[in-house]
Every structure is written in structure tokens, then in C-alpha cells.
Design brief:
2 helices; single chain; 7-stranded parallel β-sheet; 275 residues; 9-stranded parallel β-sheet; mainly beta
Length: 275
């Protein structure tokens, strides 16, 4: 009986693994391609199209180059795990430049679990239309952002709302919060109104080894009549305004300087270790 169970389990592993695939994006690709080979005749052309095709366990590898993305790149409602993640990755670290002209976020990860984003440069074209973030992590759990460079976003460089188990590491976050058509201001990295989505031990949010500078809000907001925020890092309202995040967060080994607000700001939040 035990042997039959092991054989059945092995069969299930093989069966489920067939659903995961590796896809490619190239500047000379075509969205009509299959996306499954790293060639002009096989790879997709735009990151937005590629991301919309991903499912649990899939890996998206992006070739070097400049990608103009006029609309929001969005991964919505996809579920991975620590061992079977969805991965969006530059083949060469920060050799992929994604320039957004979106009315919304450049990249949005919404209601997802188990996603890694690695090695991308993310920025906005100069415009006054957008009031959103370079990268928005919304209602999601176990999201890792690493080795990315996020700059010149109108609001926050990286924003987490209603999240749990977020890791942001080895990123460069600079020159964000410059939008003018906004009612509030953002920060370099903002983790706000976090949600208890999992009961794992240890630190749930981890921000480490990042370099964060020159994120300065310059436009006045209605509530104060002057600029607010523009912090390097902020944990914001994680234990106020209806949010009661009960787990610990860690801010470790970050270089944070020359921002418009505080370097590291803990506001309406508890259980944050800064070291």
C-alpha cells in the first residue's frame, strides 16, 4: 500500500509540473509567438502581454533592452508558493529597462501569493497623468522584490497595501514621489495597512540591503497645505485605521539618505525592528 501511495504521489508531482513553463520576452519578439523559446520567432515582445499569461510555477525571463509599456503591467489573482513560485526576472541584472506611461502603476501584483520579481529597472516617462507607484503590491502574500532599480515614479517607488510576508532586498529606490496631480504624497518604500494572511513564525516583512535616496515629495497636499512623506522607508498605519497587523517586521542594513522626509519612519505601526 505504501509503495502504491508513493508511486501515485510521484505521478501527481510529474503531472502538476507539466503546468509550469519557462517563457521569454525579447525586444525583437512577437506577442503572437508561443513565448517558449529565446528567439525572435519564439519569444513575446511586451512584458505586459507576457505577465498576463503566467500561472503557478511559471518563470518569465526577460532579455536585455528597453521596453516601453504604455499601460499597467498586472499580475492578478495568481497563486504560487515558496517552492512553486511565479518568477519575473531579467536575464541580466538591471539590463532590462521598463518605462511606463501608465495612468496607473507601472507594475501591479494584486491578490497574488508566491511571486518573485528580480533584476528589473522600472521607471515612468515624464508626465503629469499618473498618480501611482512604480510597483504596487496589493492584497498579496509572500512577494519578493530583489535587485530592482525603481525610479521616477509619481508616487511611491514600491508600495505594499494589505500585504503579508513581503521581502524587498538589494534594490535601488531613487527619485520617486515627484507627481503633481495627487492628494497625498508617497515614499521610497511604503508598507501600509498590512494584513494577517499567514501564521508563519519570524519576521513577516523584511526590507534589507537596499539603497534609498532622493525620494522627495514637492507638491502640496490638501490635508496639510504642504508636502508630506517623501520618506525613504515608511511603515504606515499597520495598526491604525482598521488595520491590526500582529506580526514582526524587519528593516536591516539599508543605506537611506537625502530623502525629503524621514530616513525610516514608523507611523501608526508596531513590532518593527530597525537595525
Amino acid at each position: 500500500m505504501k509503495r502504491k501511495f508513493l508511486l501515485f504521489y510521484a505521478f501527481l508531482l510529474c503531472f502538476t509540473s507539466t503546468f509550469a513553463a519557462t517563457f521569454y520576452v525579447r525586444t525583437d519578439g512577437n506577442n503572437a509567438n508561443s513565448g517558449t523559446s529565446n528567439s525572435s520567432g519564439g519569444a513575446w515582445k511586451t512584458v505586459k502581454h507576457a505577465v498576463s499569461q503566467l500561472n503557478t510555477g511559471d518563470i518569465l525571463l526577460i532579455n536585455d533592452g528597453y521596453y516601453f509599456e504604455p499601460d499597467e503591467i498586472k499580475l492578478d489573482g495568481k497563486v504560487g508558493s515558496n517552492t512553486n513560485r511565479i518568477t519575473i526576472k531579467a536575464i541580466n541584472r538591471r539590463a532590462v529597462k521598463i518605462e511606463s506611461n501608465s495612468l496607473y502603476h507601472a507594475i501591479a501584483i494584486v491578490n497574488c501569493t508566491g511571486v518573485t520579481i528580480e533584476g528589473l529597472e522600472i521607471t515612468f516617462q515624464a508626465n503629469t497623468r499618473s498618480v501611482y507607484h512604480g510597483m504596487n503590491l496589493d492584497g498579496s502574500n509572500r512577494i519578493t522584490v530583489k535587485d530592482c532599480w525603481v525610479h521616477d515614479a509619481p508616487f511611491s517607488g514600491i508600495q505594499g497595501n494589505q500585504t503579508d510576508n513581503i521581502i524587498i532586498e538589494n534594490c535601488l529606490i531613487t527619485d520617486n514621489c515627484k507627481g503633481t496631480q495627487i492628494s497625498e504624497n508617497g515614499s521610497g518604500i511604503s508598507i501600509a495597512a498590512s494584513a494577517n494572511r499567514e501564521t508563519n513564525s519570524g519576521f513577516h516583512h523584511i526590507l534589507r540591503n537596499n539603497i534609498i535616496y532622493e525620494n522627495e515629495a514637492t507638491s502640496n497636499v490638501a490635508s496639510t497645505g504642504s508636502p508630506t512623506d517623501g520618506n525613504g522607508i515608511i511603515f504606515d498605519f499597520n495598526n491604525e485605521n482598521g488595520s491590526n497587523f500582529t506580526y514582526q517586521s524587519l528593516v536591516e542594513n539599508n543605506l537611506v539618505y537625502k530623502n525629503g522626509g524621514r530616513a525610516i519612519h514608523v507611523f501608526g505601526s508596531r513590532n518593527v525592528t530597525i537595525r
